[in-house]
Specification:
The chain is an alpha/beta fold and 284 residues long. It has eleven helices and eight strands. The protein has one domain: Rossmann fold.
Amino acid sequence: MIAGVPPPRIGDNMVEQPNQPDKTGKKATIFAVTSGKGGVGKTSLSVNLACEFSRRGYRTIIVDTDLGLANAHILAGIKPAKTLSDYIEGKAELAQIIENGPCKVKFISGGSGVKEMANLDDNGRARICVAIEDLSPFCDVILLDTGAGVSRGVTDFVSMADHTILVTTSNFAAIADAYGIVKVVVQDGYNKPIHCVVNRVRSPEEAEQVFLKLKGCTERFLGFDLNWLGLLPEDSSVEGAVLKRAPFSEVFPGSVAARYLAKLVSGLERFVAGSKSTPQVAKS
């Protein structure tokens, strides 16, 4: 840091969008995007949700909390100069790890291939949670792209969110692991909404069957009611966007997946404080 120059404030780096805290004291709505199993499309969904919220005029930031194995920056086409790893190690201020992403989304990477982040202790994760709260007055939506599984590195971030978006596919292991993450957080006292998205399905009927199976298990064995958010169909444009290192909703805006994504955001938009419209619940 240059001598005599004060460190940047959080708001100073929120360029291209309003960078002052909301005068009413309103804070961002925090959505945690999680899954029991890896490889179900959770990160792609996180990045594209963030882009769609931003296109609708919401100041949006995505935080990759898959610590040590962060890869959301790849799907967003970003090469982060600084990450949460630098912040935890005291090498960077919070404002200095915020990157500009596609669609004016702000982006914080968790660091990839960093052993210390993968093994971060309770105090380290608590520092990240505090940092996320510090960002809250400066934006409308915060999306946490969590890791997969049931470790504390996942459940701590799910617990701090206002809403959780649970991603699964019709794969039996993915459904079982989705139930597993719900079981762990509910038994830990989680009582906030969990919204289910079924990804890579061939039909709405297939998605409905998966959701009803999951919902039946959580109600019967946990006494917890899952919410239906919607589906994303199997669509070659999603994989095409991955190859382009860009969000599918940005490079293929007319794709079937992009249209279904818009429905998902309409279903979530009503939970954002001061929402810019009065949307209907998404239907598949």
